[in-house]
Amino acid sequence: MAHAINAGALAGLKVLDLSRVLAGPWAGQLLADLGADVVKVERPGNGDDTRAWGPPWLPDGDGNPTGEAAYYLSANRNKRSVAIDIATPEGQALVRRLAERADVVLENFKVGGLAQYGLDYASLAAANPRLIYCSITGFGQDGPYAQRAGYDFLIQGMGGLMSLTGRPDGEPGGGPMKVGVALTDVMTGLYASNAVLAALAHRERTGEGQHIDLALLDVQVAVLANQASNYLVGGQAPRRMGNAHPNIVPYQEFATADGYMIVAVGNDGQFRKLCEVLGRPEWGSDERYATNPQRVRHRAELVAGIHAVTVTRATADWVARMEGAGVPCGPINTLDKVFDDPQVQARGMRIEMPHPLAGTVPLVANPIRMSATPVTYHRAPPMLGEHTDEVLADWLENR
Fold first, then answer.
1. Which of 334, 365, 384 is the last residue of a domain?
2. Is Metal-binding given among the entry's keywords (predicted)?
3. Is 185 a catalytic residue?
């Protein structure tokens, strides 16, 4: 069949993706990259909200915009799109029939939003008890905020990330800052796909499906990682430190003669190597700096001393010297330099896929490398309703 997908790790798995924007679609794209047949259900006429989130738009061969937004393209590779109006009884019945054949449903409607259509977990699981139903919301299925809408930016603020990101208060440019990518959405998508795989393993043993309740706020709190632990153990709320690290010194950006670079010293041996490269070998045995706890204690004077040296040479010069000495370092790249980087190119992190309107579409590769069931790219992000007839024949007729 022309639309047959690769024999990936999840080959044969049927996923009905009722989600839109980023967190849910990101989970669906990961499952699709791993070989699942992911069917994206979209509103006729408009489709996923992110289809309209441009510019930039994917250009056709003549450079004219196709109407396919770059944002949408980032999260919907390897899926098939069907256009179904779930506000109509006919559309609801059709989605219920698809759900009877599905292994997994992904959805990010507001709490209780799908019950009015008979598309909630209880309704669909009654007809398909093996179904794994993953709900993604801002605040979860219960709790005092359950009915609130949740967006990544809002959650980055409420969940503490913005209290840790940005220049310290009192410095020029100080104040809360969001991360430059909708990271809470992306991380929620990763947690969702992980949870789905765990639920599949459980179903393999028991034959039973289950409901997965994922909240953006929960995920944001969870991924505070060492910073959350610092607070829980130390009892003091961490504050914004710019690019500095709360527990390691030196681990931040330093100005050079022509820009900035990152120095990321993770142990005392690396620090002594750094001192040699900087021409300050005596710092390696100085009792103020010889161990990391001492360097954290004397952070301000050490960082000032390093900065006084790093501004004397260009970034590329320092990076070459430090790499040669085994000191972790690197430039701060803009995205043009990221995709020109020889390591990024060697790892194939930019791919091109055939696209019916544009000829080809550039996309970012999946970073997972598997020896037996590698990720493959078999379908560009679909146009709205592109596969409606094909999917209905596949899932409902060809049984």
1. 334
2. no
3. yes
Question: Which amino acid is residue 135, in one-letter code?
Answer: S
Same domain, 171 and 120: yes
CATH number reported for the structural domain that contains residue 216 in this entry? 3.40.50.10540
Q: Which tokens is 281 given?
A: 């070998």
| Separation CA 217–CA 6 (nearest Å) | 35
Are residues 133 and 261 both part of a single domain? no
CA distance 78 to 380: 6
The span from the CA of 107 to the CA of 131, in Å, is 13
End-to-end CA distance of the chain: 15
Write the CB contacts of 116 (distance below 8 Å, at least 6 apart in sequence). Answer: none
pLDDT in tens, 74-132: 999 999 999 999 999 999 999 999 999 999 999 999 999 999 999 999 999 999 999 99
pLDDT in tens, 294-350: 999 999 999 999 999 999 999 999 999 999 999 999 999 999 999 999 999 999 999
Domain with residue 316: its CATH number is 3.30.1540.10
How many Cβ atoms sit within 10 Å of the Cβ of residue 40? 31
266 backbone φψ class: left, alpha, beta (φ>0; ψ -120 to 50):
alpha
Q: Which of 37, 185, 218, 394 is catalytic?
A: 185
Query: Rounded to an integer, what distance in angstroms lies between the CA atom of residue 239 and that of residue 381?
Result: 40
Residues 262-273: tens digit of each pLDDT: 999 999 999 999
Q: Phi and psi of 131, rounded to 5°?
A: -70, 135
CA distances 344 to 33, 76, 377, Å, are 19, 22, 18
